[in-house]
Amino acid sequence: MGRFGDRPHDEITTRAVADFLRELDREGLTPRNVNAHRAILHAIFAYAMKPDTYALAANPVTGTDKRREPPPAPLDHYEVAEVEALARVCERGEHRAKAPNYRGRPVELSDDERAARVAEDQQDADLFRVKFYSGMRLGEVVALRWRNVHFLPDLSGAVVNVDRAVSAGVEKEPKGRRSRQVPLPRPAAEALARLGQRAEFTDPDDYVFCNRLGRRLDTSAIRRRYKRATDAAGLRPVKLHGLRHAAGSVLARTLPLVTVRDVLGHAELATTNRYLHSKIDAAAIVAVNAAFGVSPTSEPADQPTA
User: Fold this and answer.
1) Bridge-partner residues for 145, per DSSP?
2) Which of 64, 195, 232, 296 lies at a C-alpha separation of 20 to 30 Å from 51?
């Protein structure tokens, strides 16, 4: 809009668009970002070409070149043991910011304050567990209400209805405007059951994850606590969204790809496909040994001498 917003459409030529994209190249934008600018311009003119809008004769963006994007980097993600180590750090409160002090001395906390912090630390731990075991987006997790949680009778699992999400601070329909059901394994069901035992904020319309006033959690604060928790646990850096990638990658090892797509709420199977071979696991090593007729427990062959 800054470049073309005040110009008549017939002055926006293919050459003008190409010059604009080249300027973005020189400014250091990545090929993916430049292509995103190009796609938006293309969509604007495609809409204006419709007979029931402005019936423009041509789209000047069509004649410009897309930038060649590098292949996506391999997905790195945590495994179950790492996420549980992360959660234990939270339960111990080791992910908290430095304790407040007054004139160099620690501030004495009341019993109520200590109890509130213990509850917050447990909630952080269970939030990260639920996010990992469900693959839900952070905006979906913070918008989750108790009416959307359904436990199996023996607590062997649970089912969550994802029908709301928070985006840019606004709670609305989830991405793609489609609700979905997410099956949860026992560790996630147990985490939710622990949260359901608190003294307040467990009515159907209450948030599952909430602050001391029962209000929705701030996603920026969650990300900061997650970063401190990964550091305290001695884990390699993986973004919070990586817990969703982890869920997709782990599920893709055993479930059909279409099922993984539905659990994660992807619109296209191609998006889910990146999880299919995101990480080589032990089962793959067993499989290649079997393919070559090698016993994985056999003695290693002698190394050739120089």
Assistant:
1) 207
2) 64
Length in residues, the chain: 306
243 pairs with which residues across the strands? Answer: none
Residue type, 84: E
Paired sense of beta strands 180-184 and 165-167, if any:
unpaired
- What pLDDT digit, counting tens, does each position of 36-85 carry? 999 999 999 999 999 999 999 999 999 999 999 998 778 889 999 999 99
Contact criterion met (CB below 8 Å) for 140 and 164: yes
pLDDT tens for 140-178 read 999 999 999 999 988 899 999 999 999 989 999 998 888
Provide the token pair at 123. 């909630």
Phi, psi (deg, nearest 5) at residue 149: -105, 130
The number of C-alpha atoms within 13 Å of 248 and in the hemisphere containing its C-beta is: 27
Output the CA torsion 295→297→299→301 (10° steps): 40
Alpha carbons 115 and 113: distance in angstroms, whole number: 5
What angle (nearest 5°) sits at the alpha carbon of residue 301, between those of residues 299 and 306? 150
Alpha-carbon distance of 257 to 244, in angstroms, equals 15
d(CA 101, CA 93): 17
**Hey, what amino acid is at 118?**
V
Containing 131, the helix (H) or strand (E) segment is helix 111-134
HSE, side-chain direction, 13 A CA sphere, residue 9: 16
